[in-house]
Amino acid sequence: MIGSNLLRVASIASIATFAFGTTAANAQSLVINDEETMIIQAPAAAHLENMDEVFSGWNFRTVETQALQMDDFDNPGMIFVDQAIDQWDTVDGAAGESCGSCHEGGTAEFAGLRTVLPRWDEDAGGIQSMADYINECRTERMQAEAWTWSSSKMTAMTALIGLESRGMPVDVVIDGPAADAWELGKEIYYTRVGQLDMSCANCHEDNYDTMIRADHLSQGQINGFPSYRLKNAKLNSTHARFKGCMKNIRAKPFGEGSDEFRALELYVASRGNGLSVEGTSVRN
Amino acid sequence: MKRTAFLIIGATAAFAAMATAGTTTPDDVTFDDYGAVSASLTGVAGDAANGRKLFANRKLGNCLACHQNNDYLEQSFHGEVGPSLDGAGDRWNEAELRGLVSNAKNTFEGTIMPAFYRTSGFYRNMEKFDGKSILSAQDVEDIVAYLLTLTE
């Protein structure tokens, strides 16, 4: 399905290539720091009714933007990861604890966590994202203030913890107790909203790999989040991006951290099952 | 004499009614079975030059976001989501184009294309756009007039 634009990008890409798939468009790869190979194309999960393959948003960016993600020294998102490393050992809250006080094994304790989030959490009685777990630690163990969903400290910490799963395939669970939320997320994905009357699917399923003015439409995958966007020069949470999309189509957005966006996050994450967590991606 | 005066008053009243009722509201637009709208939305002829401006205006027509158009080569990055509009004036007549711009879903069921002259039936519409159409009735007429100039 991938078409002419990817071919065009591929033909001018002067980056390492190897036979990843079966078409010329796929003859490029995302290798970070010359050693970590990301899965940027994968067979679509069985629950994806209308697509055969899934592609990381990295595929749809220009060669220049792609290159920024191929070396951590060039990746502007890593500045925020450095800030989170400092934050990790910063004591905050009435309990006098830092993240590191409890997590003596460092962030390495969280290897793989990003691949299964968001997920159903029995104790919370709902779908929990990375931000929820960070805030649970902050408010309950550290007795510190919760961070807002898309604050710079929150997005940086989600990036740091997510980095421990870089390269591992996304593998969120959609059945069992998560099924209701997943169904809600799916419904939201296919519901037209706003004055422009569009659903997520209209652009990201029906029309990915086409140009909408200067923007090359991706599949809207979130395996790369939190994502550093050149547009706003900061890390962006998935919920902030959902909100931005809804505003673009003149719809009243759901709230960051709302049940609707948690459900949508689960559903969209599941559409990217099989793609690598990219740590901190770089996008337009 | 009395009769003449009556006729004049009558004619004046009719003309005034035409001027105010001349603009068809979005809910009152009549689409035929194929999604075409034969009656002008305003009764005022479309201004193709203004329509051309609206075509690229990102807050109004923003047609270029999705449609390639060789009449607009001074602007780069033409969209590819919808069909090219080169020759649109040959392929479609005025009524069809008016229908397509007003609400293309009546012509192409399930299309991604937003309805530019519609105010009802939205879900989670932003408050500031409640009760408003993307384009005014005359904007639609102007864009239709412009599209009719796109001949090959």
Measured between the Cα atoms of the first and last residue of chain A, the distance is 23 Å
Oligomeric status of the shown chains? heterodimer
CATH architectural type of the domain at 78-163 in chain A: Orthogonal Bundle
Fourth-tier CATH superfamily name of the domain at 78-163 in chain A: Cytochrome c-like domain
What is the structural class of chain B?
A: mainly alpha
Order of helices and strands of chain B: HHHHH
Task: Please state the CA-atom Rg of chain A, rounded to the nearest Å.
Answer: 18 Å
Span of the ends, CA to CA of chain B: 57 Å
Backbone shape of chain A: globular
Low-confidence stretches of chain A: 1-5, 7-27
**What is the fold-level CATH name, i.e. the topology of the domain at 78-163 in chain A?**
Cytochrome Bc1 Complex, Chain D, domain 2
The mean pLDDT of chain B is 90
Mean of residue pLDDT of chain A? 91
Sheet bearing the most strands of chain A, described?
A: 3 strands, mixed
Helical region count of chain A? 10
Helix percent of chain B reads: 25-40%
> What's the alpha carbon Rg of chain B, rounded to whole Å?
18 Å
Please report which band the strand proportion of chain B falls in: under 5%, 5-15%, 15-25%, 25-35%, 35-45% or over 45%. Answer: under 5%
Relative helix content of chain A: 25-40%
Approximate strand percentage of chain A: 5-15%
H/E element order of chain A: HEEEEHHHEEHHHHEEEEHHE
